[in-house]
Amino acid sequence: MASRFLDVESAVRQRYSAGARKRRRALCCPVSYRPELLKVIPAEILERDYGCGDPSRYVREGETVLDLGSGGGKICFIAAQIVGPRGRVIGVDFNEDMLALARKYKRQVGAALGYHNVSFRKGRIQDLKLDYDLLAAWLANHPVTDSDSFLALQSQISNLQSRKPMIPDESVNVVVSNCVLNLVKHEDKPQLFREIHRVLKRGGRAIISDIVSDEDVPGELQTNPRLWSGCVSGALREDAFVKAFEDAGFYGVQLLGRGDKPWRVVRGVEFRTVTVAAYKGKEGPCLERNQAVIYKGPFKEVLDDDGHRLRRGERVAVCDKTFQLYARPPYKEHLIAVPPRKEVPLAKAKPFDCHGTRLRNPRETKGRSYKVTSPNGNGCGSECC
């Protein structure tokens, strides 16, 4: 990719450091937030916020939220009010000036809310294991002056990543981000999506607002530091953005929002805002428990992320893992669950072949020996429905 000929991180850091000191209108798209959630947030943060969406509207009470590229902390402080005192919000950013702005008002916002549930960490969002605040503390006493001290630094980095990860595995309910993923170098993006997947709990979700393009960004645009730091050069093509979640192991990926009009057009390439939801939790064995689902429609058939083809109105056999996934968002409203008459204990469940699609015989669900006759089973009487 052309981005390797440009120091992307320096370009982004310099422009957003300037944006932390003075508002830069070119760095943001118009976004409407719930006004009652903005009252406790200082004006300095509000006027120096740069985003393209509002992923916080999909956060729920009591959750642990991770905000990638948290900047001045606006989304964190909004989410803090939604999750409430039982919830927790963690902001991660690599820009010292933005972190200083967010940390400057952390205690003030917490006091206004009556509880303190927000913290800010310094780190790169494509490596959520390395806590740069801890690394800086170590470097203060172990300066790098020669090859031996450089090797010691590398060893310490590995040690921090494995023993004191900034964000541990499966530790958050929801990852949000607002117009930041496009600022990461193309070669680092696969790791970025894998990191989002790693830190989420099973059943957790990512809600990401970002800028995407309708075509591949031409190579010559990717060497322009202003376009990189302006959320243009690093944008993924919109279908590739969705596929990046799939490749990282997510399921049920949805477009929650897509800008009707381009935010910006450069040399005929349209750049617009999208908000995507993606879920974690399809890992694990496939077990047979005589369960089925019926797709309601309106499409004649759909294909899920594991290759199950669901035809409208048909009773499709699924494994227990898929059955449980379908009972939750984003699938729940589209399907009818058909549990067995007698539950098969997990300890007695046999492996289920999830390759392909087969229909579930009603006798598998009811039981082969099921011979019940209802009171009016021999014909409709006067009380027939």
Order of helices and strands: HHEHEHHEHHEHEHEHEEEEEEEEHEEH
Q: C-alpha Rg, in Å?
A: 25 Å
Number of helices: 12
Overall pLDDT score: 89
> Biggest sheet, open or closed, and with what strands and sense?
9 strands, mixed
Which spans have pLDDT < 50 for at least 5 consecutive residues?
1-5, 15-21
Question: What is the CATH topology classification name of the largest domain?
Answer: Rossmann fold
Highest CATH level, the class of the largest domain: Alpha Beta
- The name of the CATH architecture of the largest domain is 3-Layer(aba) Sandwich
In a nutshell, what does this entry contain?
With 385 residues, the chain is α/β, with parallel strands linked by helices. It is built from twelve helices and 16 strands. α1 (8-21) runs parallel beside α4 and α6 (132-141) runs antiparallel to α7 (147-163).
Write up what this structure looks like.
There is one protein chain. With 385 residues, the chain is of the alpha/beta class. It folds into two domains: 2-129 and 165-279, Vaccinia Virus protein VP39 (Rossmann fold); 287-366, Ribosomal Protein L9, domain 1 (3-Layer(aba) Sandwich). The chain is built from twelve helices and 16 strands. It has helices spanning 8-21, 43-47, 74-83, 96-104, 106-113, 132-141, 147-163, 189-199, 225-229, 238-247, 320-326, 362-366; strands at residues 64-68, 88-93, 118-122, 172-178, 200-213, 236-237, 251-258, 264-266, 269-279, 287-288, 291-295, 301-303, 309-311, 315-318, 335-338, 350-351. Strands 1, 2, 3, 4, 5, 6, 7, 8 and 9 form a nine-stranded mixed beta sheet that branches. A three-stranded antiparallel beta sheet has the order 14-11-15. Helix 1 packs parallel to helix 4 and helix 6 runs antiparallel to helix 7. It is globular, with a radius of gyration of 25 Å. The protein starts with 7 loop residues before the first helix and ends in a 19-residue tail after the last helix.
